[in-house]
């Protein structure tokens, strides 16, 4: 516990808890809607956004956020037209954006730390990063609470959402935006390669143990925060990469939930 005396560990822990809450909250709906592959697609699309930001001299994280939102909207538009299944559409965008990122990165002439974006740097989180994460968590929480019934209806009964007069298309695009922004924020913690894991694993863990939505959400949030806290603690103890350790901690909780899953 002596590590908690260091300011950089305090910032990493606070930032990690915020990310754990956000990814688990949005991720529960992702799991219920069977959109886990979308999280992976958007996460890898961030590579194209980061490369574009580095090439143009813009903030790579902000560029990645805008780029990922456009990709998420593109996937949503293709799937809603019904011409392709979601996994096919995501696979196309996944490959295209990764290829674009590699191409753009080859044009970057300045020295850049791409490694940090690929694998995250939670211990490098600054005070400004924590403030932005707190603001993002407030906005995301307000949207998810304010549109709780609508997102639940969209997750459990899309047909009811359609016939009841709810703006299904708007909700779809708004949810895609939340997924994209959440994944980009998680990149700071675990990198773009592992960001989708924090989006999916806590919700999947809770799904094994819950019988109602309230319990499902509570367990998902607990699993998300618990994975971050345990992973960060173990990484400091074992001197291992924090992002990877957090994801493995989340996977450990998933394994436990599978062993003790409800009948």
Overview of this structure, please?
The protein is built from twelve helices and no strands. The chain is globular and about 55 Å long. The protein has one domain (2-258): ABC transporter involved in vitamin B12 uptake, BtuC, CATH 1.10.3470. The mean pLDDT is 88. Helix content is 81%, strand content 0%.
Concise structural overview:
This protein is mainly α and 263 residues long.
Largest sheet at a glance?
none
What is the CATH first-level class name? Mainly Alpha
* Assigned CATH architecture: Orthogonal Bundle
Total separate domains: 1
Helical content band: over 70%
Task: Give me the CATH fold name.
Answer: ABC transporter involved in vitamin B12 uptake, BtuC
The helix-strand sequence is: HHHHHHHHHHHH
Q: What is the CA-based Rg, rounded?
A: 18 Å
Topology:
Elements: H1 7-32, H2 36-56, H3 60-81, H4 86-107, H5 114-119, H6 127-146, H7 148-156, H8 158-163, H9 168-190, H10 195-209, H11 213-238, H12 242-259
Helix pairs in contact: 1-6, 1-9, 1-10, 1-11, 2-3, 2-4, 2-9, 2-10, 3-4, 3-9, 9-10, 10-11, 10-12, 11-12
Core attributes:
ABC transporter involved in vitamin B12 uptake, BtuC, 263 residues
């Amino acid at each position: 516990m002596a590590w908690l005396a260091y300011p950089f560990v305090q910032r990493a822990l606070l930032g990690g808890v915020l990310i754990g809450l956000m990814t688990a909250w949005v991720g529960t709906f992702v799991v219920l809607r069977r959109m886990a592959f979308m999280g992976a697609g958007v996460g890898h699309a961030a590579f194209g956004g980061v490369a574009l930001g580095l090439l143009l001299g813009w903030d790579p994280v902000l560029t990645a956020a805008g780029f990922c939102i456009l990709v998420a909207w593109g996937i949503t538009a293709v799937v809603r037209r019904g011409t392709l299944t979601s996994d096919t559409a995501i696979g196309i965008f996944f490959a295209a954006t990764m290829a674009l990122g590699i191409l753009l990165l080859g044009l970057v002439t300045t020295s850049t730390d791409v490694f940090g974006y690929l694998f995250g740097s939670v211990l490098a989180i600054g005070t400004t990063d924590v403030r932005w994460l707190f603001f993002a968590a407030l906005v995301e929480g307000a949207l998810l609470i304010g549109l709780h019934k609508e997102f639940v209806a969209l997750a459990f009964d899309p047909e009811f959402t359609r016939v009841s007069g709810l703006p299904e298309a708007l909700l779809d695009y708004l949810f895609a935006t939340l997924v994209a922004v959440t994944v980009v924020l998680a990149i700071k913690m675990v990198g773009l390669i592992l960001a989708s894991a924090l989006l999916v694993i806590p919700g999947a863990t809770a799904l094994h143990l819950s019988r109602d939505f309230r319990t499902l959400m509570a367990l998902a949030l607990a699993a998300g925060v618990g994975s971050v806290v345990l992973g960060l603690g173990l990484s400091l103890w074992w001197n291992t990469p924090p992002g990877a350790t957090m994801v493995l901690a989340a996977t450990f909780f998933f394994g436990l939930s599978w062993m003790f899953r409800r009948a």
